[in-house]
Design goal:
With 409 residues, the protein is mainly beta. The protein is 5% helix and 24% strand. It contains one helix and 32 strands. The radius of gyration is 40 Å and the shape is flat. The relative contact order is 0.05.
Length: 409
Amino acid sequence: MKTSNVFFKFAFLLLLGGATLVGCDTENLDETTLMPVFDCPDLEANYGDDCVTANGLVGIVNQLCECESTVVEYDCPDLEANIGDDCSTATQVGVVDENCECDTDITFDCPDLSANVGDPCQNPAGPGTINDDCECESNIFDCPDLGLNFGDDCNLADGTPGFVGQDCSCVENPTTYDCPSLGANVGDHCITATGWEGTVTEDCQCISDLVDCPDAGLNIGDPCQTILIPNGTINADCECEAVAVDCPDLGLNIGDTCQNPAGGVGTVNGDCECEVLDVDCPSLGLNIGDQCAITATLVGYVSDDCFCEYQCPMLQANIGDDCITALGGPGTINANCECEGLDVDCPDLGLNVGDECPRIFGPDGTVSGDCECERDGPFDCPDLEAYWGDPCIKADGSPGVITPNCFCS
């Protein structure tokens, strides 16, 4: 009886094991659906994926799970510029105004540089500042290797704060100084701003001991110049005093050679006027066709009615001046006052095949063999197989261009 029970249990275990092996066979497993896991489940997208904003602009999914537009929005879309940006016309530079127009009616101290006196600039020697002569003057430091002046803050090798000493080393700040800004005490040796050796005074000024007029760095009798006194001499009171002449307003004597505002050369007469004789236009002191000064920086020519004006008033330019064609290429003002493209592969563009060219929207393109400004690479608008700025036909049959939201407008 016991033997049959044992046999029965053994058979039962064999059947159970066989069922288990069959049930775990991979061919009997139910199909499993793998659900993707997104960074942004509501968008079914990951960070950095392409997307389209609510107003139809192409964008990228950001870390906040928002579709952030990658299309640059300008104050002035037609110019692809913002108000206040630099711009240029055929002959002049200007600034984009609130009407999205290139306003060239701006005045610079230095028109050729489009900059004012005191503006920062860059020359081959490094950073500088625009000086009164409209030159980029290198910044001059007491300690050029450090790019710092005496008394400027600095840090020692161990990070301890200090100041620049007279030997251009970084000196640890002492407990006290008579003149902390100079890093010196009253009576110490110093160097003036004009390069003279001097002594620190009680009012913490570095005053030279070697000239009659330390503030000016000049001696009595030295020539001098101010805004109001173009030709002067240092007097006993250390002031710049105008040299005595027949005509103080001109700084000249009767009979001296002079030049009038229009550029005509003449002679100072007894009434202290710059008189020019024997010319077509006595008021200008010039002949018809002569070059003249419209302003201190703009050149014109004397017209038949004795006005100093541009040869091409509508362009505010003269024949032969450089210009930019309507399509952005370089050109020259011709005798018909037109901006004529240079001798290039594509005269209408003023450019050669392979040159970069501006497009209405998006990045610049390249001039193709048939003188079109084309782009390559992935399309901006894949569904249309087109780039921003490509020509298209609108629903009403009229010509248009592809806009950054991939519409034909």
